[in-house]
Amino acid sequence: MTKLFTSSFLLVIAACVSNTNADGAEGGVPTTISAHPYVVSLQSTDGSKVCGGVLIDSKTVATAAQCLSFYDVSKLVVGVSNGAKVVKIASSTFNSGFDSVTMENDVALVKLAEAVSVGSIAVASKQPKNGISGVVTTWDASNNLVDIAETVIDASECGSGDYSYSEDEILPTMLCGLATNSNACGALPGSPLIANSQLVGLVSWGNGCGNKGNPAVFTNIASLASWVKSTAKAL
Question: Cα Rg for the chain, rounded, in angstroms?
Answer without folding.
Answer: 16
